[in-house]
């Protein structure tokens, strides 16, 4: 009997595959080092396991043979949205994917100006010349996340981040807790997206990862900083 292609419903898929994942404890996002506030990221994404099952039964052994150990890792909302259904090969590959949303877009010369303004606002904050209102400007968040992703990649964790970055990350995390859905709205503003809806083709093959004929998009290497390290 031919298999019937199942429609992807995230809540159903998460329930189906929850026994496969091992939870990794932690209070900070493994990608950027900001407080994760209890949020987690599925590695590999649940959508990838859903596609791997292809409408049939699949054993835990087969999943582990294909993907290795499946983990639930600490991850902030913004990094989680940046990854979406992306199946990274390792932590740094995931950081590159997230970084791609916030790096300067060469198609728009004014985008570099937005980052420069963000750096300037952060400098004023560190000098005590401004308050937490600077975080309203998405360019500030982009500068923080870009530096945090690069620093985490270079040091294999947030512990090696410079003190100025740790300070503004703490303040940004507090500011983002100020209202419901504020984190997701801030990601959309930083990434210059109107919504988080996937394109129709991406529902079947997010970023072309599942078929060799459609190679995955490559993100810039965070070890090649897109901005001056340190604001």
Quick rundown:
With 231 residues, the protein is mainly α. It has ten helices and three strands. 34% of the residues are buried.
Task: Provide a descriptive summary of the structure in words.
By secondary structure, this protein is mostly helical. The chain has one domain (10-208). Helices cover 46% and strands 5% of the residues. It is built from ten helices and three strands; from the N terminus they run H-E-E-H-H-E-H-H-H-H-H-H-H. It has helices at 10-17, 46-53, 60-67, 77-83, 91-102, 110-126, 138-155, 163-176, 182-191, 200-204, and strands at residues 21-23, 40-43, 70-74. Strands 1-3-2 form a three-stranded mixed beta sheet. Helix 4 packs across helix 5 (91-102), helix 4 (77-83) crosses helix 9 and helix 5 runs antiparallel to helix 7 (138-155). The longest helix has 18 residues, at 138-155. The protein is elongated. The N and C termini lie far apart (61 Å). The model is unreliable at 199-231 (pLDDT under 50).
Q: How would the global form be characterised?
A: elongated
Q: Helicity level, as a percent range?
A: 40-55%
Total strand segments: 3
Adjacency order of strands in the biggest sheet: 1-3-2
Give the ordered list of helices and strands: HEEHHEHHHHHHH
| Main beta-sheet strand count, sense and barrel state | 3 strands, mixed
Q: Beta-sheet strand percentage?
A: 5-15%
- Estimate the mean pLDDT confidence: 84
What class do helices, strands and sheet pairing give?
Answer: mainly alpha
* Count of individual helical segments: 10
Estimate nothing, just give the exact number of structural domains.
Answer: 1
Distance from N terminus to C terminus (CA atoms, Å) equals 61 Å
Radius of gyration: 19 Å
Uncertain runs with pLDDT below 50, 5 residues or more?
199-231
């Amino acid at each position: 009997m031919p298999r019937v292609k199942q429609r992807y419903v995230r809540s159903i898929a998460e329930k189906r595959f929850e026994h496969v994942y091992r939870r990794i404890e932690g209070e900070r996002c493994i990608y950027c080092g900001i407080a994760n506030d209890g949020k987690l990221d599925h590695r590999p994404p649940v959508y990838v396991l859903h596609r791997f099952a292809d409408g049939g039964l699949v054993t835990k052994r087969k999943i582990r043979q294909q993907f290795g150990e499946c983990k639930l890792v600490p991850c902030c909302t913004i990094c989680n949205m940046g990854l979406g259904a992306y199946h990274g090969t390792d932590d740094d590959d995931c950081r590159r994917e997230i970084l791609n949303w916030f790096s300067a877009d060469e198609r728009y010369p004014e985008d570099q100006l937005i980052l420069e303004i963000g750096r300037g606002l952060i400098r004023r904050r560190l000098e005590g010349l401004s308050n937490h209102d600077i975080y309203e400007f998405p360019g500030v968040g982009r500068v923080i996340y870009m530096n945090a992703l690069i620093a985490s990649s270079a040091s294999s964790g947030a512990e090696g981040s410079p003190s100025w970055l740790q300070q503004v990350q703490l303040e940004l995390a507090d500011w983002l807790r100020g209202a419901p859905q504020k984190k997701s709205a801030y990601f959309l503003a930083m990434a210059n997206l109107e919504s988080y809806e996937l394109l129709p083709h991406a529902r079947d093959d997010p970023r072309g990862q599942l078929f060799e004929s459609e190679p995955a998009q490559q993100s810039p290497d965070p070890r090649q900083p897109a901005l001056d390290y340190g604001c």
